Queue: 4 jobs
Job 1
Amino acid sequence: MPNLDGKLKPHQLGTAKGQKYGTQATEESRDKRWLFDTGGNISILSKSNADHFELTTPTRYPETWPDPKLAGQPFPGPGPMEIPSGAAGGGIPIRHGVRMCFAVESADGTTQKEVCCDLPVAVADVDYDTIGNDQLKLVGAKILWDPVVGSGSLRERDGGGKPGNLGPSSAIKNSLKPFQKGKATGRKHGRSVFKIKNWMIDTATEFSCITKSNAKWFDLELVAASREGAGPGAAEKGYKEYRGITMHFEILGRDGKPKQVSCSLPVMVKRSGSDIIGMDQLRKVNAMIEWDPTSRTGNLIERPKKEDGTPAAPVQKLQPDRSVKLRRDRRIRVVRSSNDNIVGVAAGTASPNEFTIRGLRVGGPVDVTVSYVDGTSEVIKVLVERANKV
């Protein structure tokens, strides 16, 4: 049961709860949906939302503080706690006193529950309130997000986490963000050049970014004067957009084997920080992300084949009282029919990779949605019709 949606970035309706002047204050985030940010170690509350609550300075530094030596240590004061200059925009205050509530589904995807976190948050002048890796780790959840169709899930962890093509930063020991080693290629003064990079995969960023220190190695062409900030915690707004660089990275193919992909979409150039693969690149190469911030493991995964940016929807024809057994190369979580009076479905009767579709009466087409344990899904249109008489 997908509980995330969005055009490119994952959102979910939820609530922010807390107190102001001793009175319980509850605000439904209908106008400010939570944005789930794999590129954020600390969750962010917008200033406009923070005004609803009585917030205080935390007594300890967050466990994901940019300086690992201070992480989890008592905050000496006096004065406000602020993220130091050069990290997440610099000078951003950290406050305590709001609970972020959102929905997480069970590990098998059959049920869903609300969870709430009261970790310290950054308060910033941003458009979206974001839930970062710190909150997901606290509630024991992972994120699965498909930017091609704009659907995904927050799901309970189902084990220790298996190593994949995503892992933690080698430079920041307490970071919960997903990284992958890859390379950037292009041209400089007419010659081919490449640079080994440690890409950070950011679900809260529509447009991929490179730093100025990386951009100087390539001849880049300006294609757009400005864009809005690349992410909710961006230090700058009005990034310039350039072409002339190709990002190379790895995804897990449909055959279960590593697959090298590349993308040459325009990128933003930012002052400092990580080089970012955004959701535009994943959509272009037809991939989705799975990330577990607790084990700091995950994968970029190749999606089912698509046409014009949408999954293919094959048509399966049946006769009344006839059934067909279909097999896939992935473990099936659940199968649903959009009209149980015309088409019946059953999954896992003989194998976790098989399901059965049965025609009950003439009609259709009926959408049968097959959801897999890896977070992907596909739609099959079923048409039930009588056999032609000869």
Job 2
Amino acid sequence: MMQATLAQAPQSLSALLANPRGDSAEWHRNVGHAYYRAGEIQSTLDHLQKAIRLEPTSERYYLDLGEVLARNNAREAVVIVFEAARKALPESFRIQSALGVAYLNMRDYDKAKQSFTDLIRTKPGDEMGYQLLAECHDITQDWENTGKIAERLRALNPNNGNGWYYGATAAYGIGRQNGESLRTAETQVRRALELAPGDWRPPLLLGKLLADSRRDREAAVMLKNAIALKSEDSKTYYILGQVLKRLGLAKESADAFQTYEKARATHAANQRTLLLDIK
């Protein structure tokens, strides 16, 4: 969603505090980065907000603040940040993208779709708008529009794995819904795998597709590949547990279901609310 810079700030907190520059937005940004590395989130937020107040038309300060809040699951606050940023920077593609993603994370799908549609209208040659809109349609299981946007993305760049992945999710959704062949979905998701071997979503989708077709040994391999790329996604363990159970691997299946429950609990425990005051 955003270009992460928080963990890369070179200056130490003690050096920065020894030379205070309260009227400098950049100084407050650097202090905020240093506090972030020290794990002091509230101080991070305080200084990043001061940077915004000093330079309210600098997009990177909003992106920094939104990143900290997003990493701490303060979803409502992220929306507040980027709505304020849009008012200050109505022409910023990055801010509009970030706001759309913030709406998406809040499950405000109508606003997210509008944000991403506006991105495409503003920059019809930029792949990001299509990827984000396809993701929104995919989440809401609007398979027809997912497929249409995926086709436009493939036309724009046939080597972008997202165009093939979202085409596959659309074909998979429509195929399951109508009881039709999943061959097109399998062909497209395998192409996505070739183009983006580091993306955990294609092996997960292929694993689900293979599991639906009762090709369980192949499915188990793909699902384990997905877990190797993203170990915290709970639903992958659940599907793997089902597959392993059908294969008669009772202990491995039980372990997968146990990990599924732990991953779900961890996700719930990470939900936090942080107060934000941008004026």
Job 3
Amino acid sequence: MTLDRASLIKTALAALVTAVTLWLLIDAEVWHTLRTLVPGADIARLLAALALTPTLPLLRAWRFNLLLWGQGGVPPYALYRVTTFLAFFNYLLPFKAGELSFPVMMGRAYGTPIAEAIGSLVLVRALDLLTVLVIGGVLAHLLFNTGGALGVLTAPVAAIAAVATVVLPVAVGAFSTTGRRLLASLPRLQGILIRLETGMRCPGGFGHYLRVVGLTWVIWGVQIAIAHLSLSAVAQVGPWDAALGAAAATLSFSLPINGVAALGPMQAAWALTLQALGHSWGIAVSSALVWHAVMLGGNVSLSALVALIPSASARWDQ
């Protein structure tokens, strides 16, 4: 199968995922809610949410700057461009294909070996996932009946994710040591493994790793703030409901199944979570669409702006 044909099939599948999801989500109640709430949306809150979106690639660039090179200062503008475009490609391309852009962009911008860039990306995605499991597990335990099955299951998930966050560097080291031993007779593969481990190992040791973890929590704090501002712009909903909705949507986005412009399973996960928390289906779906519009609109606008300012002409690093 040629690359063009494979890309066409993936795009068609993504369009199908989006179409089916929207068909399942949007009914007469949702249309009525959209027509009622959107014209009266709190513009100030939506603008505040949009204003926060440029801080996400900045924090992500700061995290990569610390993870790859042990530098804790303001990240270089070239790295900010990489993290901005990474988010853009993740929205644009189906089935998580946008992640493949990161090692390519890092290689072009810094000459970072592909395996090393992939290693750093794998580590931050693991930290993102563990952080979301902690947040989602704790909130689900508190917001739902703690005596029910969901409350019984979510608390241990949060605890395990918290412990895994702390011991992740040890697990990486153990995996690398075992891998090197097994690949001793295959120096080429062993070299790739070493590069992967280099990307996953903070140059400053465990102290720097904890700073990376701290930045991850700050990133998700901003994500939750954007979700709350977007949700509260159209409905009277508390921040913890928005946080749990965002956590569920993020877990769904981590799966290799997403639609056109990331429209599909993310919004379904958000809507189902808010409905489970007692909100109407109209509010649940409408707020999911508004939140997605804010995130997508902010990222596309920022990517267009960053594309107009190449690294060579930016004064950020000067």
Job 4
Amino acid sequence: MILKISSIKQLNKFFFLFLIYQIIAVVSLFGCYPSDIFFTQYSIYGLIITFPISIFSFMIRFAEPDLEMTVIIIQSVIFLISALIYVLLKRKIQKSNDTGSHYS
């Protein structure tokens, strides 16, 4: 499934939803063990929902629970990649709107 984003407003909404998705992943990753700050028995559901962006962090967290900084770094890199994609798409939409054609 390919998303067709034709306006900056749609792109901003999409990015905001991804930000919430990312936050759910981080909170779920830091809620796996009873000693974690966000521990809950329902964190597995958050991990299942955010599986595509939390799989590598979960593997590291499962193998060695004390590597919290590594998990934060991995999730930060995933967020930075998504922010870069956001900026590139925003530029492409603005350029397409400036030339008079519509991106679809």
